[in-house]
Amino acid sequence: MTTPGQGYGQGGGAVAMAPPSPPAVARPAARGGTPSSDSRGPGSDGRAPGRGGRGRLAASPLRRLWTMGTVLALLAVVFGVLTVTQVVQSADAATSVVEHSQPLSDDAAQIFHSLADADTTAATGFLQAGDETSAVQKQYNDDIAMASTLLAKAAGSTASDDPGQAQIRQLNSQLPVYTGLVETARADDRQGLPLGGAYLRFASSQLQNAMLKEAKQLYATETDRLHHDYADAQALPWASIGLGLVLLAALVWAQVRLFRGTNRVFNVGLLAASAFTAVALIWLGTAQSLAASDLRDSNTRGAAPLQILNEAQITALQCRGAENLNLVARGSTTDYQTLWAQVSKELAGQGGYLDQAARMTGGDAAAQQQVRAAVAAFSTWDQRHEVAGTANNDGDYATAVKDTIGVPGAGSTNTTDAAFTSLNSSLAAAISHEQANFASLAADGRNATALLAEGAGVLAALAAAGALLGINRRAAEYR
C-alpha cells in the first residue's frame, strides 16, 4: 500500500509527491471596488518608477516659458517692423519737402513772377514810344522763356491726375495767345497806330484776369502740398514708441517673474533684449525729435517767410504794371489807378506782405535788413508815384512818363522805376537768403534720421533673439 503523498514510479517503486498548495485567500478590495495599489507591480504602467510624475510637473512650467519667449519675440519683431515702416514714411515725407514740394512751390511762384514781370516789361517798352531798348526787349523775352520752361518742368514733375495739372494746361494754352497780342500791340505802336495801346491793355487784361489767377491757383496748390508734406515729416512715430514701451515693460515683467521662481537676479538674454529695446527707443525718440525740430525751423525760418516774400515781390510787380498801364491808357480809364491803390495796400499797408515779412524775419538780422530796405524803397516809390500821377492828371504826359521810366538809355535814378528796381532787388536778396536757410535746415532734418530705419530693425531683431535665448537657457533646466 502506498501512503498519502506517494506514487509508483516507472519501475514500480514508490515516489514522493509534493503536498498540495493551500488555497489563495483573496485580499479585501480597496474602497471603491478597485484593487489595492499593492496588487500592481513596479512598472506595470510601462514607465519607470517616479519618472511620469516628474514629467507631468515639468510640462506645464515649460510650456509657459516657451509661450512667454514666443510672445516676447513676436512683440520685438512687430516693434521692429512698425518702427521701420514709420521711420521710412517720415523720411520719405522729408525728402519730398526738400526735393519735390518746396521746389514745385517755388517754381509756381516763379511762374507767377515771370508772367507779371513780362506784363510790366511789355508796358515799359510801349511807354518808350518806338525807342524800346534792347534791355527791355531782352527782359520781356527772358520772362516768357522762363515761364515756358517752368511750366514744362512743372508738367513733368507732377502726375497726370495732380490738381495742379489743370492750371498748367490752362497756362500753356493761354501763353501763346498773350504773346501774340503783345506782338500785335508792338507792331501797331511801331507804325504809330493808336490801336496798339488797346491791344496791349487787352493783353494785360487777359494776363491779369486769367493767367495770373491760374498761376496763383497753381502756387496755392503746390503750397498746400508743401504744408501736407511738412505735417507728415514732422509727425512723431507714437505707435512705434508706444509699442516699444510695451515691449520693454513685458521684458522687465518676464525677468521679475523668473527671478521670483529661480532667485536668479540676472537673465543675460532678457537683459540684452531689454538693452537693445531701450537703445532703439532712445534713438527713435531722439532722432525723430531732432528731425521734427529742424524741419519746423526750416519752415518758420525758411519756407514760410519765403512764401510771403514771393507774394510781396509778385504784388510789387502788379503795382508796377498798374502804374505803367495807367500811362498807356492816357486817361481813358481809371481802372489802373484803382488797381494800384488796391495792390499797393496789399503790399505795404498795415498787415500787408512787407509788414508780415518784417515780423517773420525778426530773428534773422540779414533778412531783416533786406526787408527794411524794401520798405524804405517802397516809401520812395510811393512818393515818386504821387509826383508822376499829379503830372499825368495835369495833362503833362511827357513829364509823367519821364518821372516813371526816365529817358530811355539815360539810366535815370529819380524815377519810380528806379525805386521799384531797388525794392525788387532787396526782396530778391531776402528770398535768396531764406532759400539758403530752408535748404540748410531741411537737409539737417532729413539727415537726422539717417540709418535709423536700418538700425531700429537690427536692434529689434537682436531683442527678439535675446528674448528667445534667455527663455531657452531657463527652459533647459527642466530637461
Please characterize this protein's 3D structure.
The longest helix is centred in the N-terminal third of the chain and has 77 residues, at 51-127. Helix 1 (51-127) runs antiparallel to helix 5. The protein has helices spanning 51-127, 134-157, 164-190, 195-234, 238-262, 268-329, 335-348, 353-360, 365-393, 397-405, 416-447, 452-475, and strands spanning 6-8, 14-16. It is built from 12 helices and 2 strands; from the N terminus they run E-E-H-H-H-H-H-H-H-H-H-H-H-H. It is mainly alpha-helical and 479 residues long. A two-stranded antiparallel ribbon has the order 1-2. 77% of the residues lie in helices and 1% in strands. Strand 1 and strand 2 (14-16) form a beta hairpin.
The value of Rg in angstroms is 45 Å
Report helical residue fraction. over 70%
- Uncertain runs: 1-19, 21-58
Arrangement of strands in the largest sheet? 1-2
The quaternary organization reads as: single chain
The backbone outline, from C-alpha atoms, is elongated
Class based on secondary structure composition and strand pairing: mainly alpha
Tell me the number of helical segments per DSSP (H or I, 4 or more residues long).
12
Q: What is the residue-averaged pLDDT?
A: 85
In this structure, how is the largest beta sheet organized? 2 strands, antiparallel
* Through-space gap between termini: 73 Å
Order of helices and strands: EEHHHHHHHHHHHH
Which band does the percent of strand residues land in? Answer: under 5%
Number of strands: 2
